[in-house]
Write a structure and sequence with these properties.
Blueprint (H helix, E strand, L loop, with lengths): L1 H20 L15 E3 L5 E3 L3 E6 L12 E8 L2 E2 L7 E5 L4 E5 L6 E9 L3 E3 L3 E4 L1
Parallel strand pairs: 2-10
Antiparallel strand pairs: 1-3, 3-7, 4-5, 4-6, 4-8, 8-9, 8-10
């Protein structure tokens, strides 16, 4: 029994030494980026089928963003219109603009644009006409 227990102690000591000598890897700190939407702004009028450049401010972007891929979603009355089919997705959030086509939705003056990176920011209320 003594040889088995000595062998077990040897392996436990070796394992403890191995674990203690392994470097601890900490991920680089990353920042949440929520860029303010510049266009469309309050009072803007869009028509179904038109193409527009949604723009946002990246002047205060942190050096290390958690998610640099963007998504643009239409919001009506504080509810996302169609999260399954966003107006745009998969673009570099640091480009500060992306062209979208106004979808066929019911006319209204309570639409907003939500720009997502790793966090979202909603722009001003604007109108969509048929």
């Amino acid at each position: 029994m003594l040889p088995t227990s000595t062998l077990t102690l040897f392996f436990l000591a070796f394992f403890a030494l191995f674990v203690a000598s392994s470097p601890i890897v900490t991920p680089a700190p990353r920042d949440v980026f929520s860029p303010p939407v510049l266009y469309p702004r309050n009072g803007t009028i869009w028509r179904v089928g038109q193409r527009h450049n949604v723009t946002w401010d990246v002047s205060d972007a942190p050096a290390s963003i958690t998610n640099g891929m963007g998504m643009i979603v239409l919001v009506k009355n504080h509810i996302m219109v169609d999260l399954e089919t966003p107006l745009a997705q998969g673009f570099n959030i640091l480009l500060a603009r992306h062209e979208v086509t106004v979808p066929k939705v019911e006319p209204g003056d309570d639409y907003q644009i939500l720009v997502f990176g790793d966090s979202g920011n909603v722009g001003g209320k604007f109108t969509i006409l048929a």
